[in-house]
Automatic annotation (TrEMBL):
Residues 25-372 form the Aminotransferase class I/classII large domain. Its cofactor is pyridoxal 5'-phosphate. This is Methionine aminotransferase. CDD domains: AAT_like (cd00609). Gene3D superfamilies: Aspartate Aminotransferase, domain 1, Type I PLP-dependent aspartate aminotransferase-like (Major domain). Keywords: Aminotransferase, Hydrolase, Pyridoxal phosphate, Transferase. The keyword Transcription does not apply. The lineage of its organism: Bacteria, Pseudomonadati, Bacteroidota, Flavobacteriia, Flavobacteriales. It holds the Pfam family Aminotran_1_2. GO terms for molecular function: hydrolase activity; transaminase activity.
Length: 376
């Protein structure tokens, strides 16, 4: 069968998690929590099925979830009506579906590298051509390079704030600059905002769908996987203008059609009691615990992650191996699995950096430190 995309046959996340399992290594690679989820969420999932939310939900989302999402977003000054919200089976699906809804053969889509590994395959499977622009060394946006990359064939730009793998959060001025670049074009913005609720620094989350200009031109994509630490539930949602939502649903109704109904019920009810501030404090403590525990090790970093699940670290003091080789070696020998940053680039790249997931129990982090101390 002819290949439809230039991505790997097995994602780096599956590969490193499998390697961790094989070598009995502490898995700080793929981004998923190993701590328990809120008991109330578990109960609500049971309640969903007991209350008979067991058949197809409406295509755009369970009404109670759509309603609670507009209230939740209004509280953080993102104004949405039900025409703007479509519930999706996760964020990767939503990115794929948004691309499927808008791309024609040969359309160009700009991605900012390093970027999440699903973007490029999703562009290519839908007949688009990825155009690559590198973020600066500090993961800020290079607007000159972005401007240069825009052509008459540019159909969309995919952006990601808070950013995976760096945790960088865009400022309002970044969004303004992007709006200036595309305001007089038909370019559509696909804005991956899955780490919206997990910010730790001064830069607060700002959504593309909050921006007066970008609001009309974007798909803002969210995931409850990261919001509520339930990556296995695979539920998220998309905010878009009425026109873009219609285009999205035109495709969505023939892909998954609708999304797991008891999970939608549970998430809707959980939104009513959820404390976003406490949630981000909980994760910030995890980040700080990770950084504190790694202090005695020879890894270095330039900036603490401002958001998300991950901390990038340099290993120049330890080895000159290329990133992938180093990550495999560390898994096999030191029994700690991580993700090489090169996996977020389409061309071979190597800056001696790996990504650690800190969404883990303290004992897991301490075990990783113990292994590393023994070995390094
Ligand atoms: N985008 C980014 C930046 C991610 O890190 C992830 C993984 N959580 C996704 C999208 C995919 O999210 P989901 O599991 O909801 O498909
Ligand atoms: N988002 C997760 C990460 O960056 C991975 C999800 C996946 O395995 N595709 O680690």
């Amino acid at each position: 069968i002819k290949r439809k995309h230039s991505g790997s046959d097995l994602t780096i996340f599956s590969e490193m998690s499998a390697l961790a399992l094989k070598y009995n290594a502490v898995n700080l690679s793929q981004g998923f929590p190993d701590y328990d989820i809120d008991d109330r969420l578990k109960k609500l999932l049971c309640e969903g099925t007991e209350k008979n939310f067991n058949q197809y939900a409406p295509m755009a989302g369970l009404p109670i979830l759509v309603e609670n999402l507009s209230e939740f977003n209004l509280k953080r000054k993102i104004s949405v009506s039900k025409e703007n919200i479509t519930v999706s089976p996760g964020a990767s699906y939503a990115i794929y579906t948004a691309l499927a809804a808008i791309l024609g053969p040969g359309d160009e889509v700009i991605v900012l590298e390093p970027c999440y590994d699903s973007y490029v395959p999703s562009i290519e499977v839908n007949g688009g051509i990825p155009v690559y622009v590198k973020l600066k060394d500090n993961f800020e946006i290079d607007f000159d390079a972005l401007k240069q990359a825009i052509s008459l064939k540019t159909k969309a730009i995919i952006v990601n704030s808070p950013h995976n793998p760096s945790g960088k959060v865009w400022r309002k001025e970044d969004w303004d600059q992007l709006a200036n670049l595309i305001s007089n074009t038909d370019i559509i913005l696909i804005s991956d905002e899955v780490y919206d609720l997990l910010t730790y620094g001064e830069r607060r989350f700002y959504s593309a769908f909050q921006h007066p200009v970008l609001k009309e031109k974007c798909f803002s994509i969210f995931s409850f996987g990261k919001m509520f630490h339930i990556t296995g539930w695979k539920v998220g949602y998309v905010l878009a203008s009425e026109e873009l939502s219609r285009a999205y649903r035109r495709v969505h109704q023939y892909l998954s059609f609708s999304v797991n109904a008891p999970a939608q019920y549970a998430i809707a009810k959980y939104l009513e009691i959820f404390d976003a501030e406490e949630n981000s404090k909980f994760m910030q403590q995890k980040r700080d615990f990770f950084i504190e525990s790694f202090k005695e090790l020879p890894f270095t970093f330039t900036e603490k992650a401002e958001a998300g699940y991950f901390q990038i670290m340099s290993y120049g003091n330890i080895s000159e191996k290329p990133e992938k080789e180093f990550a495999v070696w560390l898994t096999e020998q030191a029994k700690v699995a991580t993700i090489p940053i090169s996996a977020f680039y389409h061309e071979p790249s190597d800056s001696g950096k790996i990504r650690f997931c800190f969404a883990k129990r303290e004992e897991t982090i301490l075990k990783a430190v113990e292994h590393l101390k023994e070995f390094l």
